[in-house]
Write the structure tokens for this entry.
Amino acid sequence: MEIEKSQIREMIKKDLTDILIRVALVGFLVYMSLKIFNPFMGIMLWALILAVILFPMHQKLANKLGGKQGRAATIFVLCGILFLGVPTVMLSGSLVDFVQQARTNYSSGSITIKPPAPDVAQWPLIGQKLYDVWGQAAKDLPALLNKLHPQLEGFVKSALEFVAGMAGGLFQFLLSMIFAGIMLAYGNSGSEAILKIINRLSGHKRGASLHKLSTATIRSVAMGVVGVSTIQALIFGVGFIFIDLPGAAIVAFIILVFGIAQLPAIIFTIPTVAFIWWSGDSSAMNIVFTIYFVIAGFADNVLKPVFLGRGVDAPMPIVLIGALGGMLSAGLVGLFVGATFLSLAYVIFMAWVDEDEDLNALVEEKG
């Protein structure tokens, strides 16, 4: 009897040692793989999102081209760079010029400010304080700049870092488009591979429905929320460049964040139109730009029904937190990736919760 117990202990000890060694080796491989892949994580995730979004349209185009997947993917990449990359490059160039000009003017002391109107002092809460600071800046700006020198130095440094981050984000965006094209060229086999992975993790019974849910969530969030907000921000941004609005890229970025938060971009139309008529010389062009920005303000009302489809299951706070958290952790690309994947995680989690509730209801009904 004692011999059998000793043999059992030896077997358990041996099996446990084997398991620990295997787990350690798998953990080491996963850790090293993530460490190697980490610099490309944001780019590849955004490329995957783009590939999931564009896959149905890519298949339609490939069928019209006689099933040539690579050629259809190349067309999509070129169109994406043309229609999204070019406006983004224009806004990035505008941002760089604005920051450099502001820094040059600050260093040379050539900044001039018009005195405030007397009505500014009557504004509620901040009117009098704003009027005093504004008046001091208009009267003796160098003295005010010297007074605020430490704060301004930090602001200028942060602005330059932001510009560098925008440039890096633009480069990542272009790379993501290229990688998305490669994924589209092998889209059918890639989709089957993802389905096999999901089946392995969740079982064949739930794998297909989870795969379908994940795909639908990525498309609804990335196209209906982030995509619409991006297109509308680019429409505004291009218009800002043509009217020579100071800080055009910064204002366009604010519109992008507002759009992700589901706040109406039309609120930017009124101050923009006021700027046009205040600074514009040609009445005809002022009318043209006024119509343009009114249309831009209402563009989301047209784009959302087209791109949103069945709607977004994730609450807007989840989308916004994902976008802002992704941007803080991974830069410009993280803005899009964070919103999509946090929404996906929320939807999958809630599907698991609902399935558990359905199971309990079934048990109660049978019991």
